[in-house]
Model the fold of this input.
Amino acid sequence: MTKRGKMALISSALLALVVIASSLFWAYGTKDGPGSEGTILIAAIVLVSIASVVIVYVLKTRKRTDEKLLGGPFYEKYEQVKEIIAGSQLTGRLKADLVDEVLDMLITAQRAGRAPEDVMADAKDFAEDVIGSFARPSRLALLGLFDGAAAFSLFVLSITFLNWLEDAKVGFFLTKMDLSMMVFVAFVSFLLIPATKLLARAKLPWAYLLPLAGGALFVLAMEASRRYLYDVDAIRAFIEREVVPIPSIVALACYVAAVPLLMAVKMVLGRRFINRA
Amino acid sequence: MVNDTQLMKGILEGCMLKVMAGGQVYGYRAVEILRGYGFDVNEATVYPILLRLQNRGMLKVEKRPSPFGPDRKYYSLTNEGEAGLADFTRSWSKLHSTVSKIMEDDQND
Done:
């Protein structure tokens, strides 16, 4: 496994541990215990967390037959280019095409006895050059906003659902969420995830730890604000205020419809933005 | 060897069209041909140029099975590519003769 793969695996394992630990703390930290519904929920969370680590491991170690032809340094270059192309806003088919071409190029160069550095000095520059030959970076960044908005919708839906499960006696459309959590979700969707992708493109494999660090920082900041800045009216209001993110069936329909709608608009715009002969 | 500079990108595009005019060529072979003429280029330079020319409709692509690895793309000129090559040839001849005149003029020493 390459260094990038190891970092991704460590990051996913840490994230899974944090999720499992906080779920257990939430479930067994109360005097009543989790109850039968809570236990099922915890079991599901633990299972999904472990499965996510296994999936990352499989994705990072599994190689196609053709990919096995590449030796270590060539494979590292290939993996970095593949990851950047896969994380770009190009269409799925185009990405697959490009990755195949790069693979063929590197296999041929390796068989010809060329040095990896001679073929591709900087994998990141190369990948960005390749992506840039299809669309302007600003246009691709605009397409990325649609991903952020879709992620925001999904996060709000799933957090509201989990909050509702926590106390199902309260109607779903009355389920509240902390305002600070809404802000954090927006921060994660529109800034943290794109920043992680951007930094992981460069030779910064530690960037995979950013989501985890962001979560930890949020918890710390909230706790510190509660302890030291609670007297400040604006801070207290921010910490204590709750919102009902999905107040009606119409709002629920909007959140659910938002994801496919955003993806459809992104696809239409993508066809206009991305040149493909 | 000729140095790779920003200016070279445009020139390389013209030269690439000329290389492709000789028949179907795949990416790595194009690199070899250009290096053979003295261009200090590698795959990372040439490959994005091939994609740009393809996206502008100057190159067409045919995929064929490779002796190893995934299918290989063979590039060849389209009608637009032939027109682009003719344009480049005219522009280059004019530029070359103008620059040569300046360089060879003793008054500029």
